[in-house]
Amino acid sequence: MAELKLMKGNEALAEAAIRAGMQAYFGYPITPQSEVIEYLAVQEPNHNYVLIQAESELAAVNMLYGAGGAGARVMTTTSSPGFTLMQEGISYMACAEIPCVLVNVVRGGPGLGTIQPSQGDYFQAVKGGGHGDYHLIVLGPNSVQEMVDHIFLAFELADKYLTPVMLLADGATGQMMEKVMMPQPKEYKPDKPWATTGKTKDRERNILTSLFIQSEDMEQRNLKLQAKYKKILANEIRYEEYMTEDAEFIIVAYGLSSRIVKNVVLQGRKDGLKLGLFRPITLWPYPWDKIGKLAAEDRVKFFMSVEMNAGQMVEDVKLAVCGKKPVFFFGRLGGIVPTPEETYEAIKEKIKE
Amino acid sequence: MKEGYELIYKRPGTLTDRRMSYCPGCFHSTIHKFMMEIVEEMDIQDKTVGVCPVGCSVFAYHYLDIDMQEAAHGRAAAVATGIKRVLPDRIVFSYQGDGDLAAIGTAETLHACNRGENFTFIFINNGIYGMTGGQMAPTTLDGQITSTCPYGRDVDTAGMPLKMAEIISTFEKVAYVERVSCNTPANARKAKRAIKKAFEYQMEGLGTTFIEVASNCPSNWKLTPEESLKWLEEKVFPYYPLDVFRDVKKLKKEE
Ligand SMILES: Cc1ncc(C[n+]2csc(CCOP(=O)(O)OP(=O)(O)O)c2C)c(N)n1
Ligand code: SF4
Ligand SMILES: [Mg+2]
Question: Please, what is the angle between helix A215-235 and helix A87-96, to 10°?
C-alpha cells in the first residue's frame, strides 16, 4: 500500500529503492548521504537485497558493474568526491550497456570542499565526467517526494535503455524532512537475456565489455550508443513550468534552487513583475527546444539561470536561447544556498537595466 | 575416429575455436586450457562466470566459451564480488595479471580476500606488464631489467617484489592459497589440480580461493620459451616458491 510518511530525503530514497525492487547496493560512507547506506543496513534483515560497504567508491562502482552485469537491479549513492572516484566505472558501464542507478547528493567543491549543499557537479553529471563519448540520463529532484519518484523512474529508464541513470540531488534535499507519498512496493521481474548468468546450452555466451580494439568495432559501438541517446532525447525530456504562460522574465532553475525561485516568482507577481520559473527535471536530456521556443516569444525579455555554483547550467540555457534573448546568471558558491531576497534583488537589478 | 585409433586427448569443448593471441610458450594459454578442461570435467559451463582483466588476457572472453565480464584495470575483484554476491550459486573467477591484481587493484584484491568473497582468483604473476610492452610490475625481481627499470629493479626505490600468495594466506576468511607453475609437465598437472580444488572449495562455500601462477613472459623477458622456463627455475622460484600457503581443510584437521 502507498503510505504518507514524514521522511528525510536520503532515507526516503533508500526506502524507495527497496520498494522499486533494488537487489544490490554498494556504497561508501560520505556526508551528506550516509543515511542511505545506514537505512539500508537497518532494513537489510527484512528484505533480500545484497548490501556491501565497499572499501572505496572505486570498488563500489565496480561491484555495481559486476552485479548489474549479472542481471540484478543495482544502485549506489555517494556525494561529490565519491562521485569523482566513480567516473571510471560509469564510463565502463555506459559503454558495456549495464543498467544501474547512481545518486550524487552533491556538496560544495572543488576538492574536499564542504559538506553543505551545492550544484557544483552539474557539468560532471551532464557533460561526461568519465572518458569517452557517453551520456547518462540525469534527473534533478527538488523535493523528498521527487527523490522517491525519481528512484522508481531511474530504475525503469536504466532497464529500458540499458544505461546508467543518475539522480543529481544536493545536500539539502538529502537532509531535509518532508511529507512524502511512498508508493507501494513494485514486484520486479528481471528480463535480461544479455546478463552473465552462466552460458546454457540454448544460447551463445554473454559477454559484457567496453573493449573494442578494432576502431571499426569501436565506432559501431559508439554509433549504437549515439542512436540510443537520440531515442532518449526524443522520448525522455521532462520539465516543469510555473507561470511561464505570460512571463516576461523567465528564471531557469533545477533542484533545490528551483524551490527558492518559486518563492521569488510569487513575490514578483505580487509586485506586478511577470516572472516565471522554468525547471528542467531531466538535466540530460535537457529541454533545449522548449526553452528555445520560449525565447522566440516576443513577450519574453530575458532569461536568468539561478544555481548553487559559479554558472554551469547557464551554458545550456544559452545554448537553448541561442542568442534570441539575453541570458543572465545568479548564483552562490561553496555550499551557500541563495536566499529568495538576494535572488529577487538580482532579478530586479536586471529588469531595471 | 579412424578404426584402430583411440581418442586420448582433445581440446575441451569449452574453448572456442578462435586462435589465441598469446605469444608462443606463454602460460596464459596453458592456464586457459586447464580452466576450460575443468569446467568441462565438472560440467559447470552453465554455472561459470568469469571476469577478465586489463592485461594480455583482456581477450580471454574470445577463447573461453563461458559468460564473461571484462573489468577495468585492477577492478576484477570488485566486479567478481558483485557477480558472486547476486549469483551465489555460480562459480565465479577473476583472472588477473600481476599489474592488475597487485598494483592498480591491490585494494580491491585485499578487501575481497579479507571479506572472504567466495570466488576464485587466478593470478598470473609473470613479473612484468606484458600487454603494455614489458614495464616493471610490482612483482619484478630485484635487479631484473624491464623497459621502465632499464638498469634493473632498484628495490631501494621500487620496493621489494610483492609476495601476494603469502600475503593473502594471512587472511582468515581465505580458504585456499597455492602458488603453482607450468614449467614441467608435473608442475602443470599440479597447477590444474590446484585450480580444480579452488573451484571445488568455492562450490562448498569455504571462502576465497587464490591460485597464483608463477608465470612467464618470453616476449618481454626477451627469452625463448625454453629459456623462460630456466629463468623461472633459477630466478623466480627461489623468491616465489611453489607451495600451498593456506588450506582451511588442513587447518581444521590440525585443530
Ligand atoms: C587505468 C589504466 N591504467 C593503465 C592501463 C594500461 N595497461 C593495460 S594492461 C597494463 C598492465 C598489465 O600487466 P599485468 O596485469 O601484469 O598483465 P599481463 O599483461 O602481464 O598479463 C596496463 C598498465 C589501463 N588499461 N588502464
Ligand atoms: S606478452 Fe608476455 S604475457 Fe603477454 S602473451 Fe606474450 S608472453 Fe604472454
Ligand atoms: Mg604481468
Answer: 90
* Domain harbouring B210, CATH code: 3.40.50.970
> Which residues in chain B have Cβ-Cβ distances shorter than 8 Å to A64?
82
Residue A11 CA to residue A144 CA, distance in Å, equals 9
Cell 522548449 sits on residue: A290
Q: Give A130-161 pLDDT, tens digit per residue.
A: 999 999 999 999 999 999 999 999 999 999 99
For residue A174, the tally of other CB atoms under 10 A from its CB is: 31
- For the Cβ of B34 lying below 6 angstroms from any atom of ligand 2, the answer is no
Contact of B86 with chain A, judged by CB distance below 8 Å, is answered with yes
* Domains of chain A, residue spans: 3-235, 240-352
Q: Which ligand lies nearest the alpha carbon of B27?
A: 2
The residue in chain A having the minimum alpha-carbon distance to the alpha carbon of residue B117 is: A52
Residue B2 lies inside a defined structural domain of this protein: no
pTM over 0.95: yes
pLDDT in tens, B200-227: 999 999 999 999 999 999 999 999 999 9
| Domain that residue B245 falls in | 27-254
In a domain, residue B44? The reply is yes
* B215 pocket-lining for ligand 2 (C-beta < 6 Å): no
Number of domains present in the structure of chain B: 1
User: Residue A326: is the preceding peptide bond cis (ω within 30°)?
Assistant: no
Instruction: Using CA coordinates, name the residue in chain A closest to B65.
Output: A205
A64-87: pLDDT as tens digits: 999 999 999 999 999 999 999 999
Measured in degrees and rounded to the nearest 5, phi and psi for residue B212 equal -95, 130
CATH architecture assigned to A3-235: 3-Layer(aba) Sandwich (3.40)
Give yes or no for a contact between B187 and B180, defined as CB atoms under 8 angstroms apart: yes
Task: Kindly report whether the peptide bond that precedes residue A110 is cis, defined as omega within 30 degrees of 0.
Answer: yes
Ligand 1 atom closest to B220 (CA): 20
Distance from CA of B101 to the nearest CA of A (A): 13
CATH number of A240-352, picked from 1.10.3720.10, 3.40.50.920, 3.30.420.10, 3.40.50.620:
3.40.50.920
What ipTM was assigned to the predicted interfaces of this complex? 0.96
What's the gap between Cα A254 and its chain centre?
10
